[in-house]
Structure formats: C-alpha cells, structure tokens
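Researcher: Let's do a round of design. I'm pasting the structure tokens now; please hold your answer until I've finished.
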C-alpha cells in the first residue's frame, strides 16, 4: 500500500506492507504523475516503518523512482525505517541511483525525535545530529567513518 501527499516541502510518502511488481509500478506511475503536475519538490519524506522488504522485481522499479527524484532535482530525501533489511535496501537503492548525497536514513529505534530530524532534513536541509543516519556518502569519509582493521 502507498500514499503520496503534497506538503510545504514537497512530498510525504508512505509505503507499507509487501510491495510486489504491480504495487511498485502503481506507486512509480503515481509519483511520476504528481511530479509532472508540478511544482518540483525540494524535499521528501518516505515513511517505510511498516514496509516489508520488497521482491527483487519491485526493487528495480523503486530504483527507477529514486532516479526520477534525481532527474527532477530533488534536494533532500528522508527515509524513515524500522527494519534493518529495509534500511539496507534504501541505502543500496540510493547508491545505485546515485542519490546517496541527498538521502538520509532515520532509524526509529535509534532516536525518539526522528520526526523532527526527518522534517528538518527534508524541509530545511538541517543535517541530523545523531549517528544512526549513515548514508553511503558518509560510509568512507567524515566523522562517521568506520574504523577498518588492518
């Protein structure tokens, strides 16, 4: 199931349950339709707390959606997750679509104030201040770099 709402910062998207290829396709078409209606959003929040890891065919369609957000110039995307598997899929999709520089992942089990952090990122570009926001852009450089044993 999905729901896409226009907001003052762009879109608030909710994806829940198991997404198969048909559901992912319907989501992508609706997202593309709303983008075509304009104006292009600056930010988006995607609530994935109730999402079940999607099937591989659906992941490819979600990858197309990530690429679409890059193409239209989306500046910030906040992904809210509860499942470690969904978090990893978001990071993988962001990396593959080359959108990882503007995606931040908010793990609801790591902070009580995830709603504020995700809104501030999507609406204003305020970087989150807690360590549960690893993105692929942070993985190898910066203060969040893992210590790799030698």
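Researcher: That's everything. Go ahead.
Model: Designed sequence:
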């Amino acid at each position: 199931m999905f729901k896409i709402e226009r907001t003052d910062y762009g879109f608030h998207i909710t994806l829940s349950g198991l997404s198969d290829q048909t559901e992912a396709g319907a989501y992508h078409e609706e997202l593309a339709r709303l983008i075509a209606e304009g104006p292009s959003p600056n930010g988006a929040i995607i609530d994935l707390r109730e999402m079940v890891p999607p099937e591989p065919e659906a992941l490819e369609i979600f990858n197309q959606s990530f690429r679409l957000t890059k193409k239209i110039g989306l500046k910030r995307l906040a992904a809210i997750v509860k499942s470690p598997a969904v978090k990893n899929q978001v990071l993988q999709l962001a990396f593959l679509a080359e959108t990882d520089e503007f995606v931040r992942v908010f793990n609801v089990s790591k902070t009580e104030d995830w709603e504020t952090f995700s809104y501030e990122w999507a609406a204003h570009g305020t970087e989150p201040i807690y360590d549960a926001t690893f993105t692929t852009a942070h993985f190898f450089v910066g203060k969040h770099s893992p210590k790799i044993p030698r």
